[in-house]
C-alpha cells in the first residue's frame, strides 16, 4: 500500500517432516519456501537427518536444508527431548541471522522445541498446523497439553482451513485473532487433465483410456488414492466398494496407496470376487499421482478426518469429479459443483457415489473446466503473499491496528502486551505459560526457566562473536507487495 | 458444516484481489468484549459463555448460536452498526463499499484478512460432548444390582467355607440345602425356558435355543468346544452366508461360487461332527448324519438345533475343569449325549440328560474329593488365603455381568452366534471398525468361572475331612457355575424376580457375615479367616 521498501526476512522453517520423505507437509514447506525465496526472503529449512541425508544441503532456488542428527522414534518424528536441540539450533540461527522461526506440523517435536528456543532467544515465531485432533481420548488430551505449552508463547499461528483454525484455537486456547487461515495450494501445472496427445502416445500401457464424456454404457473409473489407514476411512471404503459395484455395472475402482488396512481391502476383493473390477496399485510416488488420477472419472475420498485435503484439490485439478465425506475442512475446499458430499457413513457414501456416477453419465458435470478453475483458486504464490503478511504483522512492519484491529491497541492483551507484538521479557513469557494449567503451568514455567538458563550458559560458553556468519545466497529482487497475485 | 452452495463462483474468484484488507475489530471477534447493545441479552450471554453442566449433553449446543450474534451476522442488528462505527478510521471507504458476507470457504477470495474471525460462523458447528450420556441415579443403582448379586453370592460362598472350616455348620446341611435350592431353581428355570420357547415362533426357536442353551461358557475343554461350535453353531453360519451373499446379485456367478465353497467347507466339517455323534450315541448311522447335513445346509436347521441341556453342558464342562484343576486324568468322560439326534419331545430329553449328568457329576466329585483334599495340602495356609483372595477377586472382576448372552443372542439375526459368522457378515456389511467388534465376546467369562473353581479347590485343601471337601466343591459348582445362569434368566425374565433375588442375596450375605463375625466362640480365627477373605 505504501511505497516504502518492503522488509525481507530471514526465515527458518522447522519441521520433522521434510524430503526425502513424501507427504503433504513436506511439499507444503518446500513450495512455501520456494515462493518466499521468490519474494526476496531468505529461507532455510531445519529438519532431522534422514537416511542418506545428513549435514547441509541446497535445494533448487537456493534453499538451504539443515539435517540435524536426531533420534527418530515414530513415523519419522524425532524423540522429544525438550532441551537437547537448543545448542545446535542456536548455532544455526545465529549463523544464518534468522529473524523468524516458522514451525510446521503438530506432531513434530522438533518444531515445538524450536519455537520454545526461538522465543528464548528473542525471535519471532510462527506455527502452521496441518492436522485436526480430537479432544476426548487420553492421547489427544496429552498432545493438546503439549501443544498448549508450545503455543502459549507463539506469535502467530497459521491453519490450513477454518475448521482447523477452530480446532487449534480450542486445543491450544488461543486468541482467534492470532490465528490466520491460509490454505494449502497445488501446483496446478503438475496436475493437468488428460490430453489427447498423451492418449495417442500410449501413456496407458495396457490400460484403456477413459472415455470422456462417458456414454451410458462406457466404463466409469473411480479412483482412490490415499494411505490406507483407519483415519483415512479405509473401512468405509471396504464396506462401500461391493455395494457401489453391485449397484452400478460398468464401473471399476483403482486404488493406490499402502497401509495397514490394505489387507482388509484385499480380503474384500477376494470375498466378493471383484479382482477384475478393483485394481490395487500399491504405494505410488507423488509424481505418479497425476498419471493415476487421469485414468478415472471420479475421485472418491472417504476420509474420516482431514484438515484440508490437498488430494481432492489435485483430483479436481486433474478434471475428476470428487466424491468426499463431509468432515473437517473438506467442505471448505472445493466449490459445490465439483464435489458430491457424503456423510461419513456407508449408506450415504454409496448413495453419493451413485449420484456422482449418474451425473457423470448424464454429462451434467463439466469436468474439463475444473483445471482452470482450480488454478485460479489455489496458488502457492498467493499462499506466500498471505504468509508474508503474517510475518509483517508479527514483526511490526505493519502496524498492530492494521494487523489485529483496533481494540487490541486500547486494551492490554495478555497474549500480546503493550507493544502489540509479544514481549520477550522472561516474566511476561512466564505469565503466559503459567496459565496453562494448575500443575502443567508450573511445570512449563520450570521448563522455560531452565531453557533460559541454558541460553545464558550457551551465551557464555559459545559466545556469539565466535560463530561464523554464513554468506547469503544471492537474493532475488524483492517484488513489490500486492503486485504479485497471479 | 455444509457450505452455502456457491452459485457465484465465476464472480467470486477473479474479483476482490486488489481490495485492501479491511480493518479487523477485536470486538467483532471476541465475544467477551462485545459492545452489548442490548442490555437484556448481556446476562444471557454471560451465562452462555461459560460451560454449564447442561451444555455437556445438549445435542448440538454451541450456546452462542442462539445469542444475538446470529442476528448481527445478518448485518441488520444494532450491534453490527456499532461495529461499523468503531471501525472509524477508513470506515467511510469500507462502509461505502458493499461487502460480501464472510464465508467459511477457502476457494473464494474474500475481502477479509486471514486472521479475521467471523463471530457468526466461528465455532458454529462445535458440538460439546456429543456422545456423553447423562446418568440418572436410580437406573444406575438398578444396574449395579447385577454386580451386587454376584458379590453377594461370592460372600455367601466364603461364609459357608468359614462355617465349614470352623465346624460350626454341618457340611451336609450346606450341600443339602444348596442342592435342594439348585433343584428348585432348575425346575423354575426349566419352566421359564419352556414357556419362552412356546411363546416364540418356531423359526426363532432354533436360534433362541442356540443362544439360550449356551450360557457364557465355562471354558469347555477342546473336544467339547469343537463339538458345540460345530454342532449348533454351524447352521447359523450357513444362514449368515446365505444372507450375506444373497445381497450381492450383481456378481451372481461369484456368489454361487462362494456359496458352493462355503457349503463344501461346511460339509467338510460336518462329518467330523457327525462322527462324534455316532460314537457317542452309537445308534446314529452315517446316513442319518448326512441327511442331517442336507437339512443343515438348507439353512433352516430346525431339527438339528436342539442341543443338550445347559445344565448338562455346564456341569460336564465344569466337571472336566475341576478335574483339570486337580491335575488328575479326566476320569469321567464328559457326558456328551447333547448333540445327538433329537427325539420329538426335545425338552423331555434334555431334562433327562441333565439329570443324568447331574448324577454323573455328583459321583465324580465324590470320587475326586480325597484327591482334591490332599492336592494343595502341603501349601501353607497363608499362601492359600492369599491365593483364594486373588482368585475370587479375579472371579468378581472378570465375571460376565452383561447378561447379553441371553437376550442379544436370541434376538440377533445372525450376529455373534459364532465368531466366524460375525466375521463374514461384518466384512461384507458392517462399516467402520466392524472387525474389532467381534472380539467383544471375550474368554474372560470362562476365566472368571475357572478362577472361582480354582479358589474352591485350594480352599478345600484346608478342610480336614473328605465329606467337607466334597460339599464345598459341589457347593462352589452350584454357586459359581449354575447360579449365574439362573440369575441371568431371572433378570431377563422379570425385573421383579431380579430385585427379589438381589434383596434375598444381600440379606443372606449380610446375615452370614454377621453370624461369622459375631461369634465370640473363636474370635481370633474367625476374624483372621473372614477378615482375609471377606475383603473380596
From TrEMBL, chain A:
<dbReference type="InterPro" id="IPR013234">
    <property type="entry name" value="PIGA_GPI_anchor_biosynthesis"/>
</dbReference>
<feature type="domain" description="PIGA GPI anchor biosynthesis">
    <location>
        <begin position="48"/>
        <end position="137"/>
    </location>
</feature>
<keyword id="KW-0812">Transmembrane</keyword>
<comment type="pathway">
    <text>Glycolipid biosynthesis; glycosylphosphatidylinositol-anchor biosynthesis.</text>
</comment>
<dbReference type="Pfam" id="PF00534">
    <property type="entry name" value="Glycos_transf_1"/>
</dbReference>
<dbReference type="InterPro" id="IPR039507">
    <property type="entry name" value="PIG-A/GPI3"/>
</dbReference>
<keyword id="KW-0808">Transferase</keyword>
<keyword id="KW-0472">Membrane</keyword>
<dbReference type="Pfam" id="PF08288">
    <property type="entry name" value="PIGA"/>
</dbReference>
<keyword id="KW-1133">Transmembrane helix</keyword>
<dbReference type="GO" id="GO:0017176">
    <property type="term" value="F:phosphatidylinositol N-acetylglucosaminyltransferase activity"/>
</dbReference>
<keyword id="KW-0328">Glycosyltransferase</keyword>
<feature type="transmembrane region" description="Helical">
    <location>
        <begin position="439"/>
        <end position="458"/>
    </location>
</feature>
<protein>
    <recommendedName>
        <fullName>Phosphatidylinositol N-acetylglucosaminyltransferase GPI3 subunit</fullName>
        <ecNumber>2.4.1.198</ecNumber>
    </recommendedName>
</protein>
<dbReference type="InterPro" id="IPR001296">
    <property type="entry name" value="Glyco_trans_1"/>
</dbReference>
<feature type="domain" description="Glycosyl transferase family 1">
    <location>
        <begin position="217"/>
        <end position="352"/>
    </location>
</feature>
<keyword id="KW-0337">GPI-anchor biosynthesis</keyword>
<dbReference type="GO" id="GO:0000506">
    <property type="term" value="C:glycosylphosphatidylinositol-N-acetylglucosaminyltransferase (GPI-GnT) complex"/>
</dbReference>
<dbReference type="GO" id="GO:0006506">
    <property type="term" value="P:GPI anchor biosynthetic process"/>
</dbReference>
<comment type="function">
    <text>Catalytic subunit in the complex catalyzing the transfer of N-acetylglucosamine from UDP-N-acetylglucosamine to phosphatidylinositol, the first step of GPI biosynthesis.</text>
</comment>
TrEMBL record, chain B:
<feature type="compositionally biased region" description="Pro residues">
    <location>
        <begin position="331"/>
        <end position="345"/>
    </location>
</feature>
<protein>
    <submittedName>
        <fullName>Phosphatidylinositol N-acetylglucosaminyltransferase-like protein</fullName>
    </submittedName>
</protein>
<dbReference type="InterPro" id="IPR009450">
    <property type="entry name" value="Plno_GlcNAc_GPI2"/>
</dbReference>
<keyword id="KW-0472">Membrane</keyword>
<feature type="compositionally biased region" description="Low complexity">
    <location>
        <begin position="313"/>
        <end position="330"/>
    </location>
</feature>
<feature type="transmembrane region" description="Helical">
    <location>
        <begin position="469"/>
        <end position="486"/>
    </location>
</feature>
<feature type="transmembrane region" description="Helical">
    <location>
        <begin position="171"/>
        <end position="189"/>
    </location>
</feature>
<feature type="compositionally biased region" description="Low complexity">
    <location>
        <begin position="273"/>
        <end position="295"/>
    </location>
</feature>
<keyword id="KW-0808">Transferase</keyword>
<keyword id="KW-0337">GPI-anchor biosynthesis</keyword>
<feature type="region of interest" description="Disordered">
    <location>
        <begin position="264"/>
        <end position="346"/>
    </location>
</feature>
<comment type="pathway">
    <text>Glycolipid biosynthesis; glycosylphosphatidylinositol-anchor biosynthesis.</text>
</comment>
<dbReference type="GO" id="GO:0000506">
    <property type="term" value="C:glycosylphosphatidylinositol-N-acetylglucosaminyltransferase (GPI-GnT) complex"/>
</dbReference>
<dbReference type="Pfam" id="PF06432">
    <property type="entry name" value="GPI2"/>
</dbReference>
<dbReference type="GO" id="GO:0016757">
    <property type="term" value="F:glycosyltransferase activity"/>
</dbReference>
<feature type="transmembrane region" description="Helical">
    <location>
        <begin position="384"/>
        <end position="401"/>
    </location>
</feature>
<feature type="compositionally biased region" description="Pro residues">
    <location>
        <begin position="214"/>
        <end position="223"/>
    </location>
</feature>
<keyword id="KW-0328">Glycosyltransferase</keyword>
<keyword id="KW-0812">Transmembrane</keyword>
<dbReference type="GO" id="GO:0006506">
    <property type="term" value="P:GPI anchor biosynthetic process"/>
</dbReference>
<feature type="compositionally biased region" description="Basic and acidic residues">
    <location>
        <begin position="80"/>
        <end position="93"/>
    </location>
</feature>
<feature type="region of interest" description="Disordered">
    <location>
        <begin position="1"/>
        <end position="97"/>
    </location>
</feature>
